[in-house]
Amino acid sequence: MEEKYSQKIVIRYTAEIVDQPIVCRLARDYDLDFNILHARVLPKREGVLALDLTGTKKNFDRGIRYLKESGLRVEPLSKSVTRNLDRCVHCGACLAFCSTGALSIDPSTMQVMFDSDRCSGCSICVKACPARAMEINFL
Ligand code: SF4
Ligand code: SF4
């Protein structure tokens, strides 16, 4: 049996093809399993879809070729996490979840600090933040 291959990708939709059942065809025609990591429709009905795709390497390559031939932009997933300071209330709930030290508390001000250089992009803090101040940006 052929070994399974898995990769996270970002698909960018245009308004013309936003209604087409593109992802369903990945499963039906190329036998690829997919897990939707993120989906967002932008103004003018353009969209961004982040998927974790799994299948044989051959089917994965064929599926990606199909997406590109359908006029979609497909890129490997690359993401960064940022903090929206307008939302952050410095409650500290995120601190215990950050294993890299990117989130820390300044003892002199008791404000929560975010050092993007130390952030691995693991996204654990995104779910942990009750104020939804930690945001994932798909690049
Ligand atoms: S959990 Fe959210 S609101 Fe609280 S300090 Fe962290 S980023 Fe700010
Ligand atoms: S994404 Fe991960 S590494 Fe970055 S601040 Fe959040 S918990 Fe820390």
CATH topology of the largest domain: Alpha-Beta Plaits
CATH class annotation of the largest domain = Alpha Beta
Total helical segments: 3
Distance between the termini: 35 Å
What is the CATH superfamily classification of the largest domain?
Answer: ACT domain
The main sheet orders its strands as 2-3-1-4
What does this structure look like?
- Helices cover 19% and strands 38% of the residues.
- It has three helices and eight strands.
- The chain has helices at residues 22-30, 57-69, 124-128, and strands spanning 4-13, 33-42, 46-56, 73-76, 79-83, 103-106, 111-114, 134-138.
- The strands form three sheets. It has a four-stranded antiparallel β-sheet with strand order 2-3-1-4.
- It starts with a strand and ends with a strand.
- The model has no long low-confidence stretch (mean pLDDT 88).
- It binds iron/sulfur cluster (2 copies).
What's the SSE blueprint?
Layout lengths: L3 E10 L8 H9 L2 E10 L3 E11 H13 L3 E4 L2 E5 L19 E4 L4 E4 L9 H5 L5 E5 L1
Summarize the entry for a quick read.
The chain is an alpha+beta fold and 139 residues long.
Attribute tags:
139 residues, alpha+beta, Alpha-Beta Plaits, 4-stranded antiparallel beta sheet, 8 strands, 38% strand, elongated
